[in-house]
Amino acid sequence: MILKKGSAGAALLGCLCLAGHMGTMTFSLFTGWYRLDLCKNLAHLTLCFISIHALLSICSIFFCHEGASAAYKKMNYRWILQRASAILIVLLIHVHTKAYSHMATGVPLSGGWSLLYCLSEVLYIAFVAIHVGLSFSRALLTFGWVQSGRIIRYIDIGAGIVCGAAGICAATAVIRFFGGA
């Protein structure tokens, strides 16, 4: 359970940093305001906590038979979407960092590269929103902060709405940036 709690703690801290990173980058793309140190530090903190979360999650799955209790029903749609979105996030992180380094420098891209970066960013944002929206209540459940199925359901709905809204704002900013608006 220590691995699961460590993973959940890193995930919650990562969510906090992610909110800051996503918020500042979305604001930057809409307004043109950009503070390199703030945006990079938030990105690095997010990556640090999420890397710890990923490592501890992998250890939990392979070494501790994660999900053995009745509170964690295995192999349902949530489990599949969490794992699939996590894998896709890991696969797209390199393209994400390249896209944002381009956004920071403002160097023009050809139409093909611009379209590729735009599509990959929108997909990346969608996978992050899905993963966080589905996983947030599970982190709270792991710490024992919530136990009622009804409260978990409300948290899931709230997290889904917040992540969906944040994802739509961020995706809109990315499309606007790469579309040249």
Taking the sheet with the most strands, its summary is: none
Provide the helix percentage: over 70%
How far is the N terminus from the C terminus? 49 Å
Note the total helix count: 5
Report the portion of residues in β strands: under 5%
The SSE order reads HHHHH
Assign an overall shape.
Answer: elongated
Structure description:
This protein has 181 residues and is mostly helical. The chain has helices spanning 2-31, 36-63, 77-105, 111-143, 149-179. The protein is built from five helices and no strands. Helix 1 packs antiparallel against helix 4, helix 1 runs parallel beside helix 5 and helix 3 crosses helix 4. 29% of the residues are buried. The mean pLDDT is 87.
Question: Can you describe this structure in just a few lines?
Answer:
The chain has helices spanning 2-31, 36-63, 77-105, 111-143, 149-179. It has 181 residues and is mostly helical.
How are the SSEs placed, and which strands pair?
Blueprint: H1 2-31, H2 36-63, H3 77-105, H4 111-143, H5 149-179
Helix pairs in contact: 1-2, 1-4, 1-5, 3-4, 4-5
Descriptive labels:
5 helices; 181 residues; mainly alpha
